[in-house]
Amino acid sequence: MRKLSYLIILAGVLIMLYPKGSEWYEDRQQQKLLEEAEQAYSEIVPSATAPASQDLSKPYAEVTQLLAEESGAEEPVPTTAPEIEVGGKITAIIEIDKIDLKLPVLEGATKTNMKHAAAHMKETAPIGAVGNAAIAAHRSRTAGRLFNRLDEVGKGDAITVITSGQEYKYVVYDVSIVEPTDISVLKGKDDDKILTLITCDPLVNPTHRLIIHAKLT
């Protein structure tokens, strides 16, 4: 009987520790990606022109659906950290000093890529090019993780994106909360070089999307 009681207590402790263990693992993977990004600038060669015009409805719908899913809830916590397997190459590093954010950006907004990093929608303009370059990331419930604090960013704030040895400085000009189906957030504007950041809102049980629009200075 005493042995059974110990097993029940141990199971309870493991259940309580699971979220922290999962978070630790994801943070470790994110840090590995950052280190890889900082060492691989010479291999990153972004396109200088925007992709051909296409219907963004389907890819945007897929991205907003991924954002609505709670990241990491069903993933087991590995006992050792394996090699990172992501579907997209490291495209950039995004930094927002105001919210102490520094994240690797992977090419392609897939479930795997967005697990540990921000992701550039490959269907949108390349970073630094004319058009609208969209980057999406989960709104983690843990303070400071991924785009958790993105709601603190406002007009006039600076966003830095580093890619291929180049540093792009964007300034926020618009913040909005929209329906998940509002694809107008991906529109370009004349010859402007726009950066759009996308995440969920509110933090818990999200029904909308928080959109940050910034323009290259």
UniProtKB/TrEMBL annotation:
<protein>
    <submittedName>
        <fullName>Sortase A</fullName>
        <ecNumber>3.4.22.70</ecNumber>
    </submittedName>
</protein>
<dbReference type="InterPro" id="IPR005754">
    <property type="entry name" value="Sortase"/>
</dbReference>
<dbReference type="Pfam" id="PF04203">
    <property type="entry name" value="Sortase"/>
</dbReference>
<dbReference type="InterPro" id="IPR042000">
    <property type="entry name" value="Sortase_D_2"/>
</dbReference>
<dbReference type="GO" id="GO:0016787">
    <property type="term" value="F:hydrolase activity"/>
</dbReference>
<keyword id="KW-0378">Hydrolase</keyword>
<dbReference type="InterPro" id="IPR023365">
    <property type="entry name" value="Sortase_dom-sf"/>
</dbReference>
